[in-house]
Amino acid sequence: MLSCTATAAALAPRRGLASASVSLKPPPLSNRAQRLYDHAFVLDANNFASIGELLDESGLAHKLHAMRASGMTAVKSTLGGAQDDFDATVADIAAAQALFDRYPDRFIKVTGPADLDQAKAKRRIAVIQSFEAVTMLDGKIERIELFRELDVLVMQLSYNRRSPFGCGCLDGDEDGVTPLGRKAIAKMNEIGVALDLSHANTPTTSDGIRLSSRPAVITHAGCRAVFEHPRNKTDRDMRALAEKGGVMGIYMLPYLTPDTRQPMLADYMRHMLHALKVCGEDHVGIGTDSLFFPPDAKELHEVAKLEAWRRKQGIAAPGENRPPYLPDVDTTRKLAYVADALLRHGYGERVVDKVLGRNFRRVFDEIWTV
Questions:
Q1: Whole-prediction pTM value?
Q2: Which first-to-last residue range defines the signal peptide (predicted)?
């Protein structure tokens, strides 16, 4: 176990992500939290970029075991990366399908709400396919329908930068949804694709919530009132989202805190508690956008390389100088610690169950049923 001095040094921010943090020994979970978590419908609304790549990684058997032991019921996986084109995205979807075909006893591809319930009953992990980028659409509305037929159920209007449909969070807060973006929202509403506004700037977020005839979602973000950051959402938009039935997932990214230190569970809970206060218990969930498996030095090195590439491409948000995880709850059952913290803050088991996944389960049912 690290000394206090060594721990402080290890957690100090550095420009190289590979050395920015270490994992700490998590505190013991309460029996109440463990029991609740084991019986809950647990949904991480943003994790596993390109889940099909698991087939190409070493230690697959160990990872499959860890995923089952995680207690996770469903995860939303990003396909197509931050800026893949049409062909690369189709290849990514094919790789995901290969994983589902090879391990039908471990995964269920989500094509609609019933698959989420089936996964819980059969102790498999349901995978919701989604896009964060819109480059694969190439400004073509008809591609939204094409990818819906390939079971991509969640899409955005922009990543961090401007798109033909709207503005990303790094484009300032002047422009919002474009005329083509209005058509994209209408098509998503018509065919049952969830409109995700996680990476949109403030005007695009506001416009998207207002223009959508179905509830919108913010699958992974933080609260701007807790920490000012372009990837975090304003109270005004959070309230508007909730008033139309949407759900906001709180992420475990570095944007929870200033870049002078690594975020911990206590920082995460400040955002979670604020979101519950602003949105209400029926409109908050979890979308970690963090490393699913506890990282080793090799993986942290790969994260550092990715961060450098993102800076070069101009799509990195401020504060991407730390690994995307909470070192003090760095296990595959990290959401159980969120449940425990909510219980300790006085929330009842019914509310915790909603936050762990029932809220997203409800809103996806509303959106996908056409």
A1: 0.93
A2: none
